[in-house]
Amino acid sequence: MRVGLLGLGRIGAFHAATLAAHPLVDDLIVADPVRTSPHGRTGDPFDADAVVIATPTSTHAELLLEACRRGVPAFCEKPAAGDVRGTLEVLEAARGNRVAIGFQRRFDAGYAAAAGALRRGELGDLHRAHLITADPAPPPAAYIPPSGGIFRDCHIHDFDILRWVTGREVVSVYATGANRGAAFFAEAGDVDTSAALLTLDDGTLATVQGSRYNGAGYDVRMELAGTRGTMAVGLGPRAPLTSTEGLTPGGEPWPDFVARFADAYRAELDAFLRGADGLCAVDDALAALLVAEAAELSRRERRPVDLTEVTPTR
Length: 314
Hints:
This protein has two domains: 2-102, NAD(P)-binding Rossmann-like Domain (Rossmann fold), CATH 3.40.50; 109-261 and 280-309, Dihydrodipicolinate Reductase, domain 2 (2-Layer Sandwich). It contains eleven helices and 13 strands. Helix 3 links the parallel strand 5 and strand 6 (99-102). The strands form two sheets. It has a seven-stranded mixed beta sheet with strand order 12-11-7-10-9-8-13. By secondary structure, it is an alpha/beta fold. Residues 112-231 form the GFO/IDH/MocA-like oxidoreductase domain.
């Protein structure tokens, strides 16, 4: 199989190594305007049996549209586009072409186990969910203005996995944020600390919290509380937590998202190459983006926002 890879940044370089070692890939074509890779060869990445896109967000829609025009199956790291309009264009173009969007938590063993337990009724009726995504240190200042803000850039993963694990839709969001660190967050209209209350379509409440300054290490967790039991994802030996009761995990904390989700990233690409189920489709990526849009609107206007306010009529 010939596979084209666009983008050789941090996650692109990881994908290059994964693809080069994959048993189905016998020709890897890499493309990046400033970086090179020891894996693969240069050339037209769309002259392939499939393409993997790991470029900056602002380029995703254009590259996905090109893949659809050429009829090349495409996997693209989230988001499908930088805004709702662009995502709708990709959604329309993807009809008849295989397009998957990278939300790797769907392929993490812990989240899969939680989803299975919930569906089997082991937790009873779900009443509450809590999610946290916290980076050990902030990204470079230049990253923030085009990122779309913490809800679109970071918590969109929480919004997608909440929908995937629970099988429910978010109907309203009440979000807030604060700036306790570098000035460049506020200068870009963003925040470095975030919190949101989400109401699902069955009345379940979910809380989401985040930070760009979690100095103990990279922290991603989910808690599901039902009438029969409570289950947590992310409380392994490398969770960056200290317990006053002596239950502190003993491993080295996760340094970043690539290390934490390395197995999930590999499993996600494997599923794409093999044509397997379970990948995030463009319509699901749109649903997560709409929750992020509602959260950002709520934060800015300091009020609850119903998802109908940000959902476009097609």
